[in-house]
Structures are given as C-alpha cells and as structure tokens.
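Consider the tokenized backbone below.
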C-alpha cells in the first residue's frame, strides 16, 4: 500500500464561506477526476488508487477566508 496525504488550499480576500467552499471543492473535483480516469495513476497493474478521508475546514485570516481540504490518496498493488 502507498498512502499519500495532500491538501487543497484556497485563500480569498472576502469573508464569505460559500464561494471559498465552492472553489475548494472544484479543485478537489479535478483531483478526483484524474484518479477516476486512470485508477492506476500510471503505475503498473494491478495498482488501484482512490481518494479518501477528506474534510473541509475554514479559517478566517487577517486577509480573508481560507479553505483547506486535506485528503488521503491510497494506492494498493501487488508485487
């Protein structure tokens, strides 16, 4: 098993949560689309990768809102 931790981070100058959440999940959807298009992510067969364990967080900063979406990419294969 290969386990990678990644995160999507979006910073906006406003304090509105909804546009920040939408932008964060739009980027995350692109990550998911890449994994769905090639579940092996270019690795040899029989590798299968999937995205899991994601939770959206917001923080107010001095310059506006920040959206953070950490996620785990898990790849399983046999040698």
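A designed sequence for it:
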């Amino acid at each position: 098993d290969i386990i990678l931790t990644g995160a999507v981070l979006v910073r906006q100058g406003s304090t509105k949560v909804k546009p920040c959440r939408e932008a964060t999940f739009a980027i995350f959807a692109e990550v998911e689309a890449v994994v769905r298009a090639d579940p092996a992510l270019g690795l040899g067969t029989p590798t299968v990768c999937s995205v899991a364990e994601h939770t959206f967080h917001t923080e107010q900063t001095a310059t506006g809102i920040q959206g953070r979406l950490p996620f785990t990419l898990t790849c399983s294969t046999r040698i």
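The chain has a mean pLDDT of 92.
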